[in-house]
Amino acid sequence: LLGSSAGGGDGGDLVRIPMDPEGAVGTFLSTPREERTLRVSPDGRWAAYVSQDETGASIFLRSFPDGLAPRVMAPGDFPRWSPDGSRLYFVRGVTGPVLDTLKAVEVRGDGAVGGAPRALLAFDHWGYDVFPDGDLLLALGTAPEALSATGGVGTEERIVVLDWLASIQERLGR
Predict the structure, then answer these.
(1) For the whole model, what pTM was predicted?
(2) Dihedral angle at the C-alpha atoms of 81, 131, 164, 172, nearest 10 degrees?
(3) Residues contacting residue 145 through CB under 8 Å, at least 6 positions apart
């Protein structure tokens, strides 16, 4: 089991929590930055996480379970893997404190990034996830139209996009 700790002066660390109640919590990663939101790839070979300092949050990728070979993926937060592990989704604030952009970047089996991150959806994000079958993306937030009409304080709205992967592939010309 993996998680993040509320570290002392360094923000937070990524920790291994034993399944045995008598076992000791171990460290997966400890740096002067704050680490959080750890997500292990479906094949168990890569760990994506957020590392933040005074300049902002960035998505990092490390081999798992050894924690070696750190790579900076992109500025962003809230990483999520696609069900097959070939894509990493994350949120990046681009238009100020209200709207964020959901982005995706291709990740090869060796952990290398396959191109620049692509913007998929702009929303006032509260949360999102990719369902295990890959056919539905759930994003909770306020729709951009409601935000622009009310100056940032809008009507809560839930948008469910069915067959979202085909829609995105169509937009990308695949």
Answers:
(1) 0.71
(2) 10
(3) none
